[in-house]
Every structure is written in C-alpha cells, then in structure tokens.
C-alpha cells in the first residue's frame, strides 16, 4: 500500500487505519494485542483510538482502549516508532457523566488535560494526530438530521480550542490536529481561524463513510478538497450491516450473530445503524455484491478504498481473521457497471444511516 500524506501535515500513513474502539469491550486485552501485532506485521502503520473508547461507551470502559494500546507499546519493542498514532478528546458529555463530570462544554483547559492523560495511558511522549471527537457547539450528529438554532448555547469558541491545540503542538506533545463528526461549516471555520491567527491547521476530519452513509458527499467533500483536509472514513462496513451477516436473521432475530456489536448491544441498535431502513438498504448492496462475484465485505471496503474522497479508511475488527479479510480486500476494483448500480441504489435509498 502506498502511503499518503494527511492534509498539509508531515504525517505519512497507510490508506487503511486500524480502529480500536472494540478493544476492552468485544475484544479482550490478549486478543487486542494479537490484532495489533498482526496489523503491524501486515504493514499498517496507522492506528486510531480515543479517550472515550471502548464502545459502546460506559463508565467502566472509559479510557480502557488507550490503556490496552499503551501496555502493548510497553511490551513490543520498536512498535511505537513504526506507527502513526491518532487519538481523540471527547466533546461535551452527551449524557455520559463520567466524561469530565458531565460537562456540556469542551474548554481549552479540558483539551490540554485530556491530552496529558492520553499520553500517559498510551505510554508515549507524543500523539501524532490529536482530534476533537465531536463539536462543542450545537450541530446535528450521530443520527440527527436537522440543525436547530433554538438549541444553541454558550460554549468555548473554536478559537480558544485552536489555541489549546497550539499549546500542545508547541510543547511537542502533538504533531498534527484534526476533527471528527464535523460539518462543512466547522471545517471551514477551523481552517479560517487557524490561518487568520497563525494556529495549527487541521489535517484531517474523521466522519462516517460507507455505502449506507455517504453524507460526506453532500458538500463536506468539496469543503475538504478546497481546504486541503484529508478524510478518515469510519464505519466502512456500516457497523456490520454491510458484511451480510444480518441479511437473513435481521438485527435481533434468533439467528442473529449473538456476539456481533449491533446484535449484542441494545444501545447501538437505537442509533442510526439500527434503523430498519439501514438494514433494508444494506441488504440491497449485499445482494449486488454477491451477484457480481464479490462478498459484501469486499464490495463495501473496495468502495471506500477506491473513492477519491477518502484518504484512509478506518477498519474495526474483533478477530485476527476479520483483520486479514479486511486487508485482503485492498486491491479489489469495482467495475463501472457495479458503481453505477451502487449509485442507483443510493438514489432510491439515500443515506439511511446518516
């Protein structure tokens, strides 16, 4: 895999990134370390985590994923030097009282304190890419469709957050900065203020991108292209819907895979990935894959791996075998006919997992 540069930063990464939010919940520490070993062995040089992980989020597993990775670094000589490590500071608590005591804001001081804590858990002196996990301001996200001005409230300005990120960069604790779950406005404002005040310029935005959620293509892609910001696409398999494993059973039927995330965790089914419309659309894409001699996983990943919008695709796995399957899909190409059929399905179903 040819390495790509993230935004205007000096970070050079593989176009596949190992996401780790399953570590500490579906994946125990021993298995997580085997997955990390295998990912490194297969040449992936980019891993992503967050202080909020594992997922689904709960007080008992808050920060656990970073701890698991930090212990792997401690026992694996040379691993840290081979990897670009990304993590994220959680935004406002969104009903999680264990995140900064339930604060409805993300201040500059919060960012600096969270970064220092992540550095210790990760057992490293520097975080290569430090991201704001979701905005502090009022925006539609995680399944909300519409912006509602009546929900606006006073929160820390973007400028203050950028100044805190600058403090971390100047201290040598962070190499580059990014955003997650952002909007075109948010990206443009972070870039504008950074250029106006000589502050760190965001290199990346990490947003959902997959066959059942292509909302990035509704304007965010142009924004990122014009500003030279790279997309890190997460959930390329739509929380498992695009693997085909729910096609026959549904999400909760007696034959549903019991240990799969969306079947196992009720809180996940209440989110955008658990909508009936999302499964209906996924079944159509999965059938298209099979009709063209591909597995649903191969087609869903190849779609993300080959789109110009995506700099690096974040894959999440619960076994070494899944990791190998996802990596083996690299190099799969989709014919013009298949791409046309994919667009036809989207025209009828739009983005049901928005």
From TrEMBL:
<protein>
    <submittedName>
        <fullName>Aldo/keto reductase</fullName>
    </submittedName>
</protein>
<dbReference type="Pfam" id="PF00248">
    <property type="entry name" value="Aldo_ket_red"/>
</dbReference>
<keyword id="KW-0560">Oxidoreductase</keyword>
<dbReference type="InterPro" id="IPR050523">
    <property type="entry name" value="AKR_Detox_Biosynth"/>
</dbReference>
<dbReference type="InterPro" id="IPR036812">
    <property type="entry name" value="NAD(P)_OxRdtase_dom_sf"/>
</dbReference>
<dbReference type="InterPro" id="IPR023210">
    <property type="entry name" value="NADP_OxRdtase_dom"/>
</dbReference>
<feature type="domain" description="NADP-dependent oxidoreductase">
    <location>
        <begin position="15"/>
        <end position="345"/>
    </location>
</feature>
<dbReference type="GO" id="GO:0016491">
    <property type="term" value="F:oxidoreductase activity"/>
</dbReference>
